[in-house]
Amino acid sequence: MNLPVTKNLKELKSSIADLVVEDDTGNKYIVEIDRSYTSLFLHKACFNSSRLIVDYISSNDDYSTIKKIIHINLLYFPFGNIKAPLHYGKTVFHEIDKSHPQNLHIADLGMRFFDAHNILPEYFVILVPLFNDVIKNELDE
Predict the structure, then answer these.
(1) 86 - beta bridge partners?
(2) Which residue of 71, 81, 87, 123 has the lowest C-beta tally within 10 Å?
(3) E strand spans, 1-141
(4) What's the pTM value of the predicted model, to 2 decimals?
(5) What tens digit of pLDDT does each residue of 87-132 get?
(6) CA 56 – CA 34 distance, rounded (Å)
(7) Separation in Å, CA 61 to CA 12, 53, 56, 113
(8) How many CA atoms lie within 13 A of 52 on its CB side?
C-alpha cells in the first residue's frame, strides 16, 4: 500500500533509521531495511539523509561542519524491471557550457564545487532478492 506523500503524515515526520554509524572522520552511514514494497523508498532515503544532517548540526555550528551521509537501502523486494542487485547514486556538479546547452540562466557566481563530494549525500540501493547466494567477490559476501 502506498501512502500519499505529505509531510503531515506521522510516519514521515521523524527520521527512523535501522542503523546509523559514524566513521573516524565523522562521516555518517544510514542503513535502512525495507521489507515491504514501497515505491517511495528513494524519497524516504532523501528525507532521512536530510533529517540526519539537520539533526546533527547545532544552531551554533557553521555549515562547514556538515559531514557526508552515506545512505544504504537494503530492499527485500523486487523493484520494477531492475535486474542488477546493486545501484549507486550521487549529486554531480559540472560546468554548463555551450557544448552542453541547458535551459538555465544562472549568473557566474565564481563558486567552485571542488568539495561537493565531501559533503553531499551518496546512496546505495541493494536489492537483496537479486543476489543469488553465490559468493564471487567481497561485494557478494
Answers:
(1) 126
(2) 81
(3) 19-22, 28-34, 69-75, 86-90, 122-127
(4) 0.70
(5) 999 987 766 666 655 554 444 444 455 566 778 899 999 998 888 7
(6) 24
(7) 26, 12, 10, 21
(8) 28
